[in-house]
Design a protein that fits this description.
Elements lengths: L2 H14 L6 H8 L3 H13 L4 E4 L2 E4 L5 E8 L5 H10 L3 E9 L3 E9 L2 H12 L13 E8 L2 H13 L3 E5 L6
Antiparallel strand pairs: 1-2, 3-6, 3-7, 4-5, 4-6
């Protein structure tokens, strides 16, 4: 592994972790000394990557979020209940997507993370500003949902399943 490859690998490892990664662990994974990792960190920071050194290891200075794609189906009348179920448990509905047989995949950003935003969205639909994207695919659609951690997403998954909205969990690669 070259120095450049090692630094890319260090950035990847730290970026994918929601907890600090100790230099000792990075050294083991990259098969170098801890001292080399410390030197690499100085160069990585110099290159503009915002990495913080904590007493427990290195972490990227960015919010860490877990993300999952849910395939769901429900009626127009159940839309508010579905969205509230997600935000009440701490989720953010990032977008809505459909796979249309003619037009292909279509997506629209939502950014719904509170009951207030759910109410605003539902009100815009009720006022006729537009109709739900799910209506062009017989109610089947996908939501990318973000949360602080996987446990919150597990809770959202469970509630969507209990309410009968959840069809399946989708790997993002399945959408392309």
């Amino acid at each position: 592994m070259t120095r450049v490859e090692r630094r890319r690998e260090i950035i990847r490892i730290i970026s994918e972790s929601c907890v600090p990664v100790p230099a000792k662990e990075l050294a083991r994974l990259c098969d170098v000394s801890r001292q080399v990792i410390v030197q690499d960190m100085a160069l990585i920071r110099e290159a503009g990557i915002d990495i913080i050194a904590t007493n427990k290891g290195y972490i990227v200075n960015a919010p860490c979020v877990a993300q999952r794609v849910f395939k769901v189906s429900h009626t127009d009348e159940q839309m508010e209940d579905e969205l509230c179920a997600i935000v009440d448990l701490g989720g953010k509905v990032v977008n809505v997507m459909v796979n249309h047989r003619v037009y292909g995949r279509m997506s629209a950003p939502l950014g719904i993370n509170s009951r207030k935003k759910v109410s605003e969205f539902i009100e815009n639909i009720r006022l006729g500003k537009s109709s739900p994207l799910k209506n062009i695919t017989s109610n089947y659609h996908y939501h990318t949902v973000e949360a602080e951690n996987e446990e919150i997403l597990d809770g959202i998954e469970k509630v969507l399943q209990e309410k009968g909205y959840l069809i399946e969990i989708v790997n993002k690669n399945q959408l392309t």
